[in-house]
């Protein structure tokens, strides 16, 4: 892995890359604005008649299983197949697969047929993907599954096995983020509780990761997006949630590399 300072230099080379995001409708505006703040541009097409063309013209694809409809799911399969065929990097967010058999089965089919650079989910969703018992709380991770000192090694092992199985990077999001590929694991302990009170932050993060996937590898892309989002949130934490949202985007637009370096709480495991 590169030095964090070298990884941060990747921020400068996005150069208006087009990112295709198929995401939850309530998160579209915030997701595209987050991508724009990073220097890329997002389009959120979801009509099955056009998504192959849109994905083909894009540099990365972000897929969310949130708020699935039959038509959106058709579009997801078309877009993912197109991205796989054209070697366009893609991330999938496993929203709700621990509570919905429909989403879980769609997820299994998508992963069996296509290549994803990043598989993202909370601890309950990742455990479900691994075929383990999970304790989901709707679309959130159950308290028994969330990463802590006692279960951290077990969650790292689960994510490592999945990364090998799917030849991908696995990201478990939470108070402690776990980022794993076949070679090493990174934990990130930045962020604030206020992020969990703002709807759509998971979709925002996925879109940001996709933006960085357009110019770098999966581990670097996910780490960059996590640090920018979570350290920005730390710096402007405000219990007035709509004020927090506005300040968050303002901060993400101006946060400097030195500020990230100074505040990053990152640990690397071989």
Automatic annotation (TrEMBL):
User: What chemistry does it catalyse, as a reaction equation?
Assistant: 5-(2-hydroxyethyl)-4-methylthiazole + ATP = 4-methyl-5-(2-phosphooxyethyl)-thiazole + ADP + H(+)
What does the sequence similarity comment in the record state about its family? Belongs to the Thz kinase family.
Q: Write down the superkingdom of origin.
A: Bacteria
Which residue windows are transmembrane per the record? 194-213
List the Pfam families: HK (PF02110)
- Known function: Catalyzes the phosphorylation of the hydroxyl group of 4-methyl-5-beta-hydroxyethylthiazole (THZ).
Q: Which cofactor does this sequence's record say it needs?
A: Mg(2+)
- This enzyme's EC code(s): 2.7.1.50
Q: Which UniProt keywords apply?
A: ATP-binding, Kinase, Magnesium, Membrane, Metal-binding, Nucleotide-binding, Thiamine biosynthesis, Transferase, Transmembrane, Transmembrane helix
Q: Which GO terms describe its molecular function?
A: hydroxyethylthiazole kinase activity
The pathway to which it is assigned is: Cofactor biosynthesis; thiamine diphosphate biosynthesis; 4-methyl-5-(2-phosphoethyl)-thiazole from 5-(2-hydroxyethyl)-4-methylthiazole: step 1/1
Q: What is this protein called?
A: Hydroxyethylthiazole kinase
What residues bind substrate, as annotated?
200
Q: Give the binding site residues for ATP.
A: 120, 173
